[in-house]
Amino acid sequence: xxxxxxxxxxxxxxxxxxxxxxxASGGTFSxxxxxxxxxxxxxxxxxxxxxxxxxxxNYADSVKGRFTISRDNGKNTVYLQMxxxxxxxxxxxxxxxxxxxxxxxxxxxxxxxxx
Length: 115
Known about the structure:
Layout (H helix, E strand, L loop, with lengths): L2 E5 L2 E4 L4 E8 L8 E6 L6 E6 L5 E3 L7 E6 L4 E6 L8 E7 L6 E2 L3 E6 L1
Parallel strand pairs: 2-11
Antiparallel strand pairs: 1-3, 3-8, 4-5, 4-9, 5-6, 7-8, 9-10, 9-11
């Protein structure tokens, strides 16, 4: 079965950096779009960044210029490099594999940015 395991979350001061990783197992996922989403308390889950099979990327306006999504298909891993973190980036971050029929989600990793 497909499993996504996230790591790299934690507590960081504003202006700092974190690198999130999500390793997928249970199949080969090179042909599918991968994405990072986040959800803050009381808020809806929102798309942060995505990366296609061909390497094309999309970012939420709020993170453009600060976050970078990348993937290593040989390792079935997607990364999110987060720089210049702001308190409003505080959320649980989830990785998402866009594979039919319904896609797959990781368990989430907490990112907390202090002022």
